[in-house]
Specification:
The protein is of the alpha/beta class. Helices cover about 30% and strands about 30% of the residues. A nine-stranded mixed beta sheet has the order 16-15-14-13-7-12-11-8-17. Strands 3-2-1-4-5-6 form a six-stranded parallel beta sheet, with helices on both faces. Strands 9-10 form a two-stranded antiparallel ribbon. Strand 14 and strand 15 (about 260-270) form a beta hairpin. Helix 5 packs across helix 6. The radius of gyration is 21 Å and the shape is globular. It starts with a strand and ends in a 6-residue tail after the last strand.
Length: about 350
Amino acid sequence: MKIAVIGVGRWGVHLLRNFLAHPQVDVVAVIDPQAQRLAAVKQQFNLDANILLSTQWSDLQQVPGLTALAIATPAITHYTLIKDSLKSGYHVLAEKPLTLDPIECLELCQLAEKQHLILMVDHTYLFHPAVAQGQTVVKAGKLGDLRYGYATRTHLGPVRQDVDALWDLAIHDIAIFNNWLGQIPVKVQATGTVWLQRNGESHHSLSGLADLVWVTMTYPDGFQVYIHLCWGNPDKQRRLAVVGSRGCLIFDEMSTASPLTLLHGEFERQGNQFLPVNQQREVVEFPAGEPLQRVCDRFIVNIIQNTTPDISSGWVGTELVEILSALTASLKQGGQTIDVNINAW
């Protein structure tokens, strides 16, 4: 299968690496507007001279038999690139987010269906073996009655100049919570702070790109999620948890020894007292595997079998963009609760 990779920046280079290693893929073109990046990947991967390296998107027209594209360009460029790709008859794997506008996402999903093409979004965490195993644990009812969830995603840079910390970071945790719960939030709320790229003098003005964002999401059954996002915190955390009446499931990506842990524990009532009982720590095992390799392989399988992606389709990407758009509206309105209108589609 002949594939072109569009964009070989920080993430695109990993897509290129995986497709070069895939036994059913022939990478025939690499497109990037920066010639130095093309030169770097040519040397890094010792690319064959037959592979087209170009700074011009239009040069793909001269590549015969091209089947699919992997697009890893800035989100602001996604809509035009993906739309042109689908109209040209190419299957598309796009870096997240699908676009920055849910209406554009919806249009692309409908176009892909009309063209009978695969549109898949690289929500890599949905292919992480720990996340897949975590979904199994939650659905098996091991946590008892689900009560609430929380997540923290912080680090010191990189600081984006095209989107704020909400759009840069939240999509990962929202995708995992939706996957584990099997639900989409119906109401969201967000507050934030701008320090680095603000338009104005006030540190707490949201006229700029928020460096710190606090998110609250409410699901149809009343389950609530709280997320802390910041790209200005040297305390790097990648931690997500779902708490139930009988335990807590924790996905801590920074823990190399036990990234997925089930903490058993519940209350037993004795008179007016609530005493903790059945406390136990269980390391949840999961198979090894690079999530991005699984993304790339699933994309190829979907094309070969002509099946819609069941985990990270364009429709899933659209849901996530709709949620982020509602959170942005709340952020701009000082934390007002905003309805998520997924059903309006």
